Amino acid sequence: MRFVIPFFDDSSVIFAAATQRKLKDRGHDVLTALMADHKLSDRQLTNNIPNGPDMEIDDSFFRSDAMKSFDAMLTCKAPLGVRKQLADPKHKAMRNRPAYIAFQPGLEFTPERGRLNRVDFDAVFLYSADHRDAYKEHIQTAFSQHVSFGHPYFITPNGAAPRGRNIYFFAQAISPLTLSSRQFMVDVLATLARRHPDRDVVIKLRHLPGENSDHVHKEAFAYPWIIDRYFQDLPPNLKLSDCSMTEALADAAIAITCTSTAVMDAISAGVPAMIYLDYVESHADKYAGLMRKEFADSSLIAPLTAIMDLEAKPPTPNWMANHFRGDDLFDEIEQFVKRFKTGK
Amino acid sequence: VNIIKAIDKHGGRFLRWAANFFTGNSFIRVEQRVDKRIQDMEDKVLPALDGINRLRDDLERHTLEIYKRANEK
Lengths: 344, 73
Prior knowledge:
The structure holds two protein chains of two kinds.
Chain A lengths: L1 E6 L2 H16 L3 E7 L6 H7 L6 E3 L14 E4 L4 H8 L1 H4 L6 E4 L9 H6 L5 E4 L2 H10 L7 E4 L16 E5 L8 H17 L5 E4 L18 H8 L7 E4 L3 H7 E6 L4 H7 L4 E3 L10 H9 L9 H5 L8 H7 L4 H15 L2
Parallel strand pairs in A: 1-2, 1-4, 2-3, 4-5, 5-6, 6-7, 8-9, 8-11, 9-10, 11-12
Helix pairs in contact in A: 7-8
Chain B lengths: L1 H22 L1 H46 L3
């Protein structure tokens, strides 16, 4: 089969790179397409797609005949150009057009708008079985939309042990929210580094200053800025990194985060994951509350004492079944595209 | 005269109740009373919740401080 994956920001480039890899492994022809109005720096682009995108496109691409050469278009976001195209009944009824399949960028705490943006897609995959059920309950379409759950990199781990030996903290732009809570997190990580001098504690930055300036989640207090301004005597094994997610997970023995989707990548890669939500002023951070709810029965939420001793627990089987799928996800995608193209 | 006054009084009350009931006024009043009570309860609970959050933050800072001291060179 032939797939195209358009991307334009840091969530969609990660999605494009990971999904292309997975589908290519299954023998498909998969092209990544960088959109003209993208917000990516060269570093973000080469970090995720070292050889560069296969194509550069603008909105007119979705209306062009070139689209007919693909069996399906996959996206984790719903670009305006695609939504406009799908809202056009003439295009929707056109023969030989590709199937439009939408996923979600990652964990989605406020999914209402995203649901509405996906109503015209031929297939929608929500990131958990609960979200799939909520989508089915709230959204009615005039056509038979394929609604399922799964995410190309929320894949059940294969049981392999983590390859790395370092401790990674996956930062997120807006959570922790306040300066005090972010200073507290640096303090926690510095203490962790002193407690485990034989390992590196790496703060994996989501982006560098100046990047993601148009992203919906703007970072008010970047960790490098906080460290420069408020911390002098930090242990040498506390480090900052702007490496790719793949590189980070290959080097990690433990993944710690507050509210980042990286926890799902870590679980999928077989890296023990811990979610820390008790940081100071977390009561002022709505994402901490939403994360607590989403992961309530996962056993991944850890108190400070467990973080300090790196006592990670495995996720509970029920929670895993609700959020992760095996390769049957890709079987389902292939079967859907086949059905769509043959009209059966 | 007393009997007529009593009929006027009770009939008037009934008519006023019926008018309020059928125009929905009585429900609006009940709703306003419930809102007021919820607001009163929130006014009492929120300062207590702030206090609990401050205590929780202090406890977390204190726990971290113990680990910091234990791991000082």
